[in-house]
Specification:
two-stranded antiparallel ribbon, binds nicotinamide-adenine-dinucleotide, Dehydroquinate synthase-like, alpha domain, 2 domains, 14 helices, alpha/beta, about 50% helix, binds glycine, seven-stranded mixed beta sheet
Length: about 350
């Protein structure tokens, strides 16, 4: 299907997207000149489905891989689990040239990337994302992290992978809810950067929800292109990259307020995008029609518009503790139009409350 380049000087890399692409894993590792021991980290769900296949492909390519499985779920993105993987890497005798592969969704990707960034002060990292969310977002751009009891993604680094290998066929086994979750981030790209892509999403929902292979390849490629373009301009989120957090400010607060159990990331982002559209409208930045467009695409892709079991006061408190709060001010990513964002740090508590009342049941 083709490649997307992430051009970051001496740490540039390629995102390779195709169906049946897992079969190219051995070849990719050889092309990158890796040999000897390799650690493949996956979770029990994905490992059961694709682990043995990857291991035997890597062995056929003359490499010496071992598979380490973690429990599926957000709780796995922890220092406790990281400690176990460090122990595995040490006992395997991995050295600075030994790559570590993440085979799985965003949890496995973020956790494994954190290991790769810190083990021996950094070893080569390869992403083989298997959830839609990981294929369109978390495997690209180098944000790696584990959670702390006091907050999500608080311990991490910017650490770019050496390559991203996307096999769109892996999406055939993805649970339906996880497909919708990934689609929230796909919708985000249309809203923040590309009105034509937004139109494509609007008019091709049936094919996408039915997991039509070419539709999925298209949305994955376009999402990766948009993310790559932003990351190339602002790798460390000093300015522009903040636009990728559209919908995420409220989403993080909702996830925290519901103990990371009720909503997965994409669902919380969908509610957050609704909230951000409402704030944009309340500030006079965008029309009522645009808010309707946002609501309609979120619903079309079976995602929630409103959050249950949260309170406006809790969410307000949590918003002020978000790590993206710079100098005590929340940097709100808002919409002028589809594909046109504006970042504002002067949104009053009153406006935020008005929007929250609309999105909290
Ligand atoms: P996840 O990794 O928990 O995967 C979701 C579920 O799908 C899991 O149960 C997993 O086992 C299963 N799964 C994955 N691929 C599968 C497949 N092909 N077939 C069957 N089952 C499969 O969740 P996620 O939504 O992929 O990622 C969420 C995480 O990503 C969060 O921790 C979030 O903070 C992080 N994230 C990171 C970034 C970043 O830039 N680093 C961006 C967005 C989200
Ligand atoms: N998911 C937001 C980012 O990668 O910056």
């Amino acid at each position: 299907m083709g490649d997307v380049s992430v051009n970051l000087r001496d740490i540039s890399y390629t995102i390779n997207i195709d169906s049946n692409n897992l079969d190219n894993a051995g070849q990719l590792l050889r092309q990158l000149n890796y040999q000897g021991k390799i650690l493949v980290v996956s979770d029990e769900n994905v490992g059961k489905l694709y682990g043995e296949r990857i291991i035997s492909l890597l062995k056929s390519a003359g490499l010496m891989p071992e598979l380490f499985l973690v429990q599926p779920g957000e709780e796995t993105k922890s220092l406790t689990v990281a400690e176990k993987i460090f122990a595995k890497a040490i006992t395997m005798g991995l050295d600075r040239k030994s790559p570590i592969i993440a085979l799985g969704g965003g949890v496995v990707g973020d956790l494994t990337g954190f290991i790769a960034a810190t083990y021996l002060r950094g070893v080569p990292f390869i992403q083989i994302p298997t959830s839609l969310l990981a294929q369109v977002d978390s495997s690209v751009g180098g944000k790696v992290a584990v959670n702390h009891a006091l907050g999500k993604n608080l311990i991490g680094a910017f650490y770019q992978p050496k390559a991203v290998l996307i096999d769109t066929n892996t999406l055939s086994t993805l649970p339906e809810r996880e497909l919708y979750t990934g689609l929230a981030e796909v919708i985000k790209y249309g809203l923040i950067a590309d009105s034509d892509f937004f139109k494509y999403l609007k008019h091709n929902s049936e094919a996408i929800l039915n997991r039509d292979s070419s539709a999925l390849k298209h949305i994955i490629k376009r999402s990766c292109e948009i993310k790559a373009e932003v990351v190339e301009k602002d790798e460390k989120e000093l300015s522009l990259r903040v636009i990728l957090n559209f919908g995420h400010t409220i989403a993080h607060a909702i996830e925290a307020n519901t103990g990371y159990k009720q909503y997965n990331h994409g669902e919380a982002v969908a509610i957050g995008m609704h909230g951000a559209a409402l704030i944009s409208n309340l500030l006079g930045l965008c029309s009522n029609e645009l808010v309707e467009e946002v609501r309609s695409i979120i619903s079309r892709y079976r995602l929630p518009l409103k959050a249950k079991n949260c309170t406006v006061d809790d969410i307000i408190n949590l918003l002020l503790r978000d790590k993206k709060v710079v100098g005590g001010k929340v940097h709100w990513v808002l919409l002028n139009d589809i594909g046109k964002v504006v970042v504002r740090n002067d949104v009053s508590e009153d406006i935020i409350k008005k929007a929250l009342v609309e999105i909290i049941i």
